[in-house]
């Protein structure tokens, strides 16, 4: 590959992670912040926690819309990068929980929508090992930065309950700077020949048809999606109830929450990212997915135990960071990995669709079960789905073993 292409792509990938981390760091804490400082209702927290997977379902259609306007992958990334952050610039002036939720929804929509195009740009400009190495490295730098920011944010927000509004605006500006560096990533200026944009059911139904047709044709990709779907659904079940559990049951302060959620999780992520990156050269994506899901199951066990021993909360998030490091790599790079010589954007778009589907039902079911049976029942169910996701990956080993036996006996 051309050295300049690789250099520009590596720089854009690294700076995007570093400059985007402050806003990503704040958004993770937003449900806790709104509950603690703005007295957001349980319904508002539930809505905010549900946004990420739900907007993934809608962002799945962005690739179709972008193609219909003739956007190439780079232009799609640049437009999404600006639109996703602009509303946060007004946080210091608009003091409204609903506006914060709306701004978060817009950010999540466009940041998710740009992922298929972003991963295709990385695939086209970086070879496989380089792609894995630099994606892992950029993620490590981002989480290391997140730890430093968390140490500052935690005590600062406890002392000044309104300072977070200004930090959101400044972080949005930093994120917009990263868009500038993405302008220099080379891309072939070719336009996909697709139908023009129209507000019709057929226009939006076609991408869903194509996604499920892809899953039908690629059994290996379908099995991977099933495992990730089960494990992800387990995490979605506790996504809504976690802020309620941390505030209402564990009675955590900002500093305690930030210490566990950012520092311990960040340490786990940083320490294990290089191991997951090396694991990509030793194990299949199915073996990696099994280990990731079992890691999330172990995380839930220690969250369960935190009621009786507060130290378990820090250990739980360390394990979560360990599993999340693998999940981050596998989820983002699965499109380029499974696509082979095809356009990886359509494979990455399926990831968005699956996240959206489980997000439509997981948090709602978790909330209902939380109200009916309490948090520990939901944690137990979440644990079971993570185990299902992990052990379902053994089906791929069985399939490969059966194929080997058939080839030997034929």
Structure description:
It contains 17 helices and no strands. By secondary structure, it is mainly α. It has one domain: Growth Hormone, Chain: A. The longest helix has 35 residues.
In short:
The protein is an all-alpha fold and 410 residues long. 83% of the residues lie in helices and 0% in strands.
CATH superfamily: MFS general substrate transporter like domains
What is the class in the CATH system? Mainly Alpha
Secondary-structure-derived class: mainly alpha
Indicate the overall shape: globular
Number of domains: 1
CATH topology: Growth Hormone, Chain: A
**N-C termini distance:** 41 Å
% residues in beta strands: under 5%
Number of helices: 17
Gyration radius, to the nearest Å? 21 Å
Query: What is the annotated CATH architecture?
Result: Up-down Bundle
Strand-helix topology:
Layout: H1 3-37, H2 42-59, H3 62-68, H4 73-83, H5 97-113, H6 115-125, H7 128-159, H8 163-182, H9 201-217, H10 219-239, H11 241-249, H12 254-282, H13 285-305, H14 311-339, H15 345-373, H16 375-392, H17 394-409
Helix pairs in contact: 1-2, 1-7, 1-8, 2-5, 2-15, 4-5, 4-6, 4-8, 6-14, 6-15, 7-12, 7-14, 9-10, 9-15, 10-13, 10-15, 10-16, 12-14, 13-14, 13-16, 14-15, 15-16
């Amino acid at each position: 590959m051309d050295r300049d292409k690789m250099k520009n792509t590596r720089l854009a990938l690294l700076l995007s992670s570093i400059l985007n981390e402050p806003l990503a760091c704040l958004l993770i804490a937003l449900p806790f912040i709104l509950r603690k400082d703005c007295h957001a209702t349980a319904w508002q927290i539930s809505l905010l926690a549900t946004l990420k997977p739900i907007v993934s379902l809608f962002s799945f259609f962005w690739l179709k819309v972008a193609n219909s306007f003739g956007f190439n992958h780079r232009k799609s990334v640049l437009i999404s990068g600006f639109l996703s952050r602009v509303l946060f610039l007004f946080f210091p002036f608009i003091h409204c929980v609903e506006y914060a939720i709306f701004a978060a929804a817009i950010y999540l929509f466009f940041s998710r929508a740009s992922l298929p195009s972003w991963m295709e740009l990385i695939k086209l400009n970086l070879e496989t090992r380089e792609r894995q190495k630099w994606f892992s490295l950029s993620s490590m730098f981002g989480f290391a930065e997140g730890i430093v920011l968390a140490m500052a944010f935690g005590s600062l927000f406890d002392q000044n309950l309104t300072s977070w509004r200004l930090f959101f605006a400044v972080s949005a500006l930093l994120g917009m700077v990263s868009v500038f560096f993405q302008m220099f990533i080379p891309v072939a200026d070719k336009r996909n020949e697709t139908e023009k944009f129209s507000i019709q059911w057929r226009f939006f139904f076609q991408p869903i048809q194509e996604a499920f047709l892809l899953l039908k044709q690629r059994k290996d990709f379908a099995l991977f999606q099933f495992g990730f779907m089960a494990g992800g659904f387990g995490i979605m079940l506790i996504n809504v109830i976690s802020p309620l559990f941390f505030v209402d049951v564990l009675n955590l302060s900002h500093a305690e929450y930030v210490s566990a959620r950012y520092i311990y999780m960040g340490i786990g992520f940083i320490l294990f990212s290089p191991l997951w990156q090396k694991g990509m050269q030793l194990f299949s994506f199915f073996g990696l997915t099994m280990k990731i899901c079992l890691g999330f199951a172990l995380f839930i066990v220690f969250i369960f135990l935190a009621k009786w021993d507060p130290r378990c909360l820090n250990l739980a998030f360390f394990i979560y960071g360990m599993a999340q490091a693998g999940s981050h790599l596998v989820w983002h790079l699965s499109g380029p990995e499974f696509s082979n010589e095809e356009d990886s954007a359509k494979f990455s778009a399926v990831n968005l669709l699956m996240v959206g589907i489980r997000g439509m039902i997981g948090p709602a079911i978790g909330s209902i079960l939380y109200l009916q049976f309490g948090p520990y029942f939901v944690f137990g169910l979440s644990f079971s789905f993570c185990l299902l996701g992990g052990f379902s990956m053994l089906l791929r080993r069985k399939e490969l073993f059966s194929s080997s036996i058939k080839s030997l006996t034929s």
